Amino acid sequence: MSEYLAKTHTNRKYKRGQHMKVHETHLQNVAPLKDISQIERLMAELKNNSGKYGLRNETIAIMGICTGMRISDLLSLRVHDIIDGNGNIVEEFRHIDIKTSHTRHNNKAHTIFIIPECQQALAYYLKNRHSRSVWLFSTSSTSNHKHAPLSTNRYYHIIVNAGMRVGIKTIGTHTLRKTFGYWFYKSTGDIIYLQQLFNHSDIAITRRYIGLEEEKMKRLMFDQFSAQNKS
């Protein structure tokens, strides 16, 4: 599973469609999943307790954790964005971040890499999904290709409720992106790449975003307490 989370890079290609905003009032309290067992419990809950949309909901989470894409970008994808001419899942594709596409300096397309485990999950999903919409993650179970993609607000509620049921309280759609960042950093130590990927103005922001500052503070407090006990 750690390999499943580690190797990825990201990017953005503007899509027409959804541009909906998630109302995460507790965004500052949303944390990355630092325990593999938490990730596994969340995936199982999304898949097994979401009715006929369980596979869709799980696959969104898998792709979010494996790519670091914002939820609005994930849900704007169409099927043809991730498959080649033979119908196979691509290893990479180009994408522009919806949130920053309107700014002159941040509207360049970058490359999103899809690691083998994520490719397998997407291939299985496309083969077994209920919808045949052009949208990768559709709200409809019909074959009408004009149906809309799942909204960010709807998926926010889906993942928060699933997280609560398995005991994860500090969860939201940003959890997927933060989890990607946390495990990518643990695997590579490349904070500069993450800063650029997340479009942060300062490395300190990136460190806070993926939970490194919280870990540092906790470690310092425990070290201080231990030193006092030894004196």
TrEMBL record:
Molecular function terms from GO: DNA binding
Presence of the UniProt keyword Glycoprotein in the record: no
Family annotation (InterPro entries): DNA_brk_join_enz, Integrase-like_cat_sf, Integrase_catalytic, Tyrosine_recombinase_XerCD
Domain Tyr recombinase residue range list: 28-222
Biological process according to GO: DNA integration; DNA recombination
Keywords: DNA recombination
One Pfam family of this chain: Phage_integrase
Position of the signal peptide: none
Keyword GTP-binding among UniProt keywords: no
SUPFAM superfamilies for the chain: DNA breaking-rejoining enzymes
This protein's name: Tyrosine-type recombinase/integrase
Organism: Candidatus Paralactobacillus gallistercoris
Classification of source organism: Bacteria, Bacillati, Bacillota, Bacilli, Lactobacillales
